[in-house]
Amino acid sequence: MYSVLKGASYILAHTPDMVIHNGTTQTTQRTIDPESEYLKNLDKSLRTYEECKAYLPNQTYIGNMTPQELAGYEQPWFLQKSEHTEREGKFGEIMPEDEFIGLIAICDVFDLVKLEVNFANTVRSKLESHSLINPALLKALEKGVALPEVKQLIEDTRVEPLYFNGNIVGCIKAAHDIDQSLSAHVIFENLVSKASCVLSLLHLIGKTEVNAEEIDYVIECSEEACGDMNQRGGGNFAKAASEMAGLVNATGSDVRGFCAGPAHALLHAAALVKSGTFKHVIVAAGGSTAKLGMNGKDHVNKNMPILEDCVAGFAVLISANDGVSPEINSDIVGRHTVGTGSSPQNVISSLTAIPLEKVGLKLSDIDKYSVEMQNPDITKPAGAGNVPEANYKMIGALAAMRKEIEKSQLADFVSEHGLVGWAPTQGHIPSGVPYLGFARQELMDKKLNRVMVIGKGSLFLGRMTNLFDGVSFILQQNSGAGEEKSVSETSVRKLIADSLKDFAKHLQGDEG
Amino acid sequence: MMLRDKKAIIIGDRDGIPGPAIEECVKTAGVQVVFSSTECFV
Amino acid sequence: MDLENQKRVKALAEQYGPENIIVILGAAEGEAAGLAAETVTAGDPTYAGPLAGVQLGLKVYHVCEPEVKDEVDSAVYDEQISMMEMVLDVDDIIKEMSTIRDEYCKY
Q1: Please, what sign has the CA dihedral across residues B33, B37, B38, B41?
Q2: What whole-number distance in Å separates Cα of residue A303 and Cα of residue A291?
Q3: Which residues from chain A sit within 8 angstroms of residue B11, using beta carbons?
């Protein structure tokens, strides 16, 4: 039986200070021209936490609005007022930066994070009221140090300072003096990724009926690498995050594939569950600080706020068929292969028309495509266009080339089978997965029959190949056959006992 | 012929036309591709 | 334009002579195409990269422009590019590219 999509969680951490100090657009600019106007005025373009929460695409990401509701608002969305401003959402939350720094400290198990004592105490009291954070974890925030000590560390050693509201509130030390793979910069990025992954896992467990102890395996699929100089990228974020989230019976591993990572990881998870190897597998990822403010210069030039001000995360639970949740149809899988090439039509065909054709389906037989769901508010001013819309146009254009629709019907195809984008440009985060939470509900409500999830990845950025990559798969309504009932020992005994009784009665009857 | 015998520098775009696709195409017009890259804004 | 790509463009123009170079772009929309074209002709408008203030004036086209399309093998163009003509705003791209070429192209 097919495995099912049992639940999904989505989190954001609003991190404006990390935009300034850790986003690569800003750090590069600081290297080239530290006196540039862009850097000098950057703080004026950053949003407050309240503004970040009141941003329509963010409220959609955490599940308080549907993509359909978001589409009802005129773009650009940063100019629109949102009815929703909540921190908590159906799928997760938007965490403020101070609490997120606290969570980073909690996730540090090597005494590398030093927080200023007053900040640590304030954050600890805030996190005490967080329903998902185990009080035992808060002990990590009892080791605050005096501000002069933090400043001394920043002066003497190569550390990454931690800022909140522009003030130094702590720092992250290097884990090794010489090893670049354990530098303060790398440890910082990895702890951010781990912390945002942990928060996603906690929300997933908190929002599904499955207990933490029942999780067998976790696949982490971010774009970071952890290890030392002898095994840079050795891993294993999955297990490190599972430990923090209390998934005591889980092991796990990391899957990488640039933005296509989550789609690959979901295929792995679906196969592990369908084969019966594991019953509950989580696919999860935290976000990246490198991409904060990635298109900031364009946003500032156009008098917009810097919209890439959140680290994002997600977690998805793939489980044995429960007879209710949407199934992952692993018989219809699209793959961009080595031989596919990089022409856009070959790429999109390999992921959509080719796998569908094998089972006799047309492109229009998929009710909704979940593609690269980047928020157009972010990408359009930066010259990358409307990424999800371009993807839908490609699928529509392919349908026209295959004579499945008329060329004049292209716009209708896009609006019927597409969605607007709402995910932050955090690489792997927008890729196919942001729609899973909504798709699960819509498939269970029988509003949709089939959804195709597509992940695409720019492998060439790693300079190991010029190839592109991608995989796709289908979510479908549950066939309703229910969980496979294995014949238990008790039921076998009962069957034997019943037939022996019958046999005995039969013998008695013969005698009588 | 504008392209023939020129040295071509290709700057493709992940969300537009990727470098290798442009390369395949312009090679047929007799250019020598001296550099090909694909940019990514997302 | 990516800083490393700017460095390569500058070095290749020096190596082969700017008059022998043609830059072919694949940008997703008009404004981005225009900015990239401006970078290799008038210099990096963001003043961030090696081409800041460097007026190479290179010949530059988007792959979807008719000047390029007319000279390449049409079967290969169909296979590699044609579908994207339905996706991209080709008219806007042509408009942006022509404006930049008219103003800054030296060859």
Answers
A1: negative
A2: 20
A3: none
Extents of the domains making up chain C: 3-104
**Contact with chain C for residue B39, Cβ under 8 A:** yes
Is residue A48 within 8 Å of residue A55, measured between CB atoms?
A: no
C9 touches chain A (CB under 8 A): no
pTM value surpassing 0.90: yes
Contacts of A307 (CB under 8 A, 6+ apart): A47, A55, A78, A299, A375, A377, A378, A424
Mean pLDDT of A426-439: 97
Range of the domain at A408: 4-476
**Low-confidence residues of chain C, pLDDT below 70?**
none
The gap from C-alpha C106 to its chain's centroid, in whole angstroms, comes to 14
Q: Can you tell me whether residue A161 is helix, strand or coil? A: strand
C interface test, pick of A31, A297, A302, A343 with most C CB neighbours within 10 Å:
A343
Tell me, what's the pLDDT at A238? Answer: 98
DSSP label at A342? S
Percent of chain C at pLDDT > 70 equals 100
Q: For all residues of chain A together, what is the average pLDDT?
A: 95
CA distances from A39 to A25, A26, A32, A186, A421 (A): 10, 7, 11, 23, 29
Residue A110: burial class (beta carbons within 10 Å; 0-12, 13-18, 19+): exposed
Question: Residue A432 gets which letter from DSSP?
Answer: S
> CB A344 to CB B18 under 8 A?
yes
- End-to-end CA, chain C: 21
Interchain proximity B42–A460, CB inside 8 Å: no
Collapsing DSSP to helix, strand or coil, A19 comes out as: helix
- Pull the structure tokens for residue A416: 């019927």
Look at residue A140 and tell me if it is in a domain. Answer: yes
Least confident of A5-9, A435-439, B37-41: B37-41
Q: Which two tokens stand for residue A408?
A: 């004049």
Looking at residue A500, what is its pLDDT? Answer: 79
Please write the tens of the pLDDT for every residue from A170-229.
999 999 999 999 999 999 999 999 999 999 999 999 999 999 999 999 999 999 999 999
pLDDT value, residue A102? 98
Q: Is the dihedral of CA A16, A22, A26, A32 positive or negative?
A: positive
- Asked whether the beta carbons of B26 and C67 are under 8 A apart, the reply is no
Q: In the predicted model, is pLDDT for residue A483 greater than 70?
A: no
Domain count, chain A: 1
> Cα separations (Å) of C36 from A6, A219, A505, A507?
45, 39, 91, 94
pLDDT at A488 over 60: no
Residue spans of the domains in chain B: they are 7-39
Q: What SS3 class is residue A279?
A: coil
pLDDT digit string, tens, across residues A1-37? 999 999 999 999 999 999 999 999 999 999 989 999 9
Cis amide bond preceding A57, omega within 30: no
